[in-house]
Specification:
Blueprint: H1 8-18, H2 21-25, H3 36-54, H4 58-64, E1 67-69, E2 72-74, H5 79-88, H6 107-120, H7 122-141, H8 144-156, E3 159-164, E4 180-183, E5 189-199, E6 208-215, E7 228-233, E8 235-237, E9 243-246, E10 249-254, E11 265-277, H9 284-320, H10 344-376, H11 380-416, H12 427-435, H13 444-457, H14 462-481, H15 485-509, H16 514-549, H17 554-571, H18 574-582, H19 587-590, H20 594-597
Helix pairs in contact: 1-10, 3-6, 6-7, 6-9, 6-10, 7-8, 7-9, 9-10, 9-11, 9-12, 10-11, 10-16, 10-17, 11-12, 11-13, 11-16, 13-16, 14-15, 15-16, 16-17, 16-18
Pfam families: Acyl-CoA_dh_1 (PF00441), Acyl-CoA_dh_C (PF12806), Acyl-CoA_dh_M (PF02770), Acyl-CoA_dh_N (PF02771)
Domain Acetyl-CoA dehydrogenase-like C-terminal: 502-592
Domain Acyl-CoA dehydrogenase/oxidase C-terminal: 282-451
Amino acid sequence: MTVYKAPVRDINFVINELLDFNAHYQTIPAGAEATPDMVEAITNEAAKFAEEVLSPLNQIGDEQGCQWNDGEVTTPEGFKEAYKLWVEGGWQGLSHPVEYGGQGLPMSMGLIKSELVGTANWSWGMYPGLSLGAMNTLYVHGTEEQKQLYLSKLCEGTWTGTMCLTEAHCGSDLGQMRSKAEPQEDGSYRITGTKIFISAGEHDFAENIIHIVLARTPGAPEGTKGISLFIVPKFNTTEDGTITDRNGVRCGSIEHKMGIHGNATCVINFDSATGYMLGQENEGLNAMFTFMNTARIGTAIQGLAASELAYQNALPYALDRYSMRSLSGVKNPDKAGDAIIHHPDVRRMLLTARAFAEGGRAMIYDAAKYSDRMVQAETQADRDEAENELGFLTPILKAFLTETGLESASNAMQVFGGHGFIKEHGMEQIYRDARIATMYEGTTGIQAMDLIGRKVVLDGFKLYGGFCKKLYKFGFKNLISGKRRCYSAKLIGYTLSWNWHTIKMVARASRNRDAVGAASYDFLMYSGYLSMAYYWAMMAEVAASKLAEGGDDKAFYEAKLETAEFYFSRLLPRAKGHAGCMNSSTDSVMAMTLDRFTTR
């Protein structure tokens, strides 16, 4: 069974010493209440809830799973009761406006909460997590009447939300979507169609579930230009939120999955269900991106969570498992062998998970500041700027951190050896739960194409150039006056290489369009390793400065520097391999004819 201890000290390091959330909060209206004392209190209470309520349910959820019976879903033992405590604590509306029942704190505060909840019990955390996406979409695109009715109930937590995109025949290609929305005289619509892979689509937590659904109106253009977005409640209600009758929404089945057993992944059938348009007709996909980007940042947290939980549970085993003698001499003479943490390869695996967890935390928390700016922007121009900057980072965060989280989970199983493959220690659950993260909300390949295609090439390199400028500015500044100049030098060198390989790749793509697709995965992974290097360089500078000042927590800062050295020496060099692949011949991928794929 896995255990979880909230990494409050490291969270405080990131938000206080590295990113200075307090100064950031003074620049946004919602930050007035987010005083250091308030942030500390909320973080500690969220940590307590995660450790004491959710973590003990993690294995139970995996073993029992969800049960489907005639369209109704029962969640694992203790899940429903934990959600009741969640609602009573007012956690759901933490970062949403007071006028709709929220507490009005910055979005970044909600992200800290999401990390703690997700690491303790990812399956449970998906239920309120999906609601957050519905809440954000309603807040940005809903009418005032829709916000008063639906957003208020979602902030309370008495209702929950989902997003319904995928259909069996089209997967991520939403242009092929067939669900229909027929307009009615009263302004509502009749929604008909079937959606699959709907996380938290049916459960016993709340009195109503609000589905955010993509569908086509009659005569809508073909492809993605003809998609609209709709609010479709499980139960119909009056204008004041009183539940009346059952809507035409039923859970046809739940999936039997590799992992996240405690979360119901549903087939949802809409049979002339009453729905209400959210946003403008035929602009549903743009509106849904509000939800999808929320979900993608949430998925990035799953990658961080997998690295953190894997490290926390593999470390005690490595300290207490005695096997073979250390190559550099006996370390535990009173034992038949030395603790395996003295073996270099075991340390490599542990430090890899630690570096990805701590580096990922810094990456995600910095991105959360863009979310704050986007929501709190006073002008549309400021909102667009923050949204675009966050949009550039989103595919890197989602894809890179889920890939590294899966690697961390795999390494943690390896630390346990054969014991990692059996259920007793819970390590294989971390891997199984993490495996989906690289797939949903767009696979790694889809994120890679989004990054290089939409966020770099079609954007005219503006966002890409701005990000590079930030790396160069930090690198050259600290190359002159920093305490860890070697890291700044590496950051500059890898950024220059990134620029050069990107230019070459785009030039090749002008002659062969497949060049972008063939290089996109490696471009994304290089981007991820480089981005994380920037944050590790920042963390090293802060840690070195703190050590120079003296004072408490010397061991914490020394460990931070040692982990930074591991990252720059052992993990960042992987980017060179991705650079080589990025600019290798496209023919190495595309030349094989289809008939030769079957010749073995």
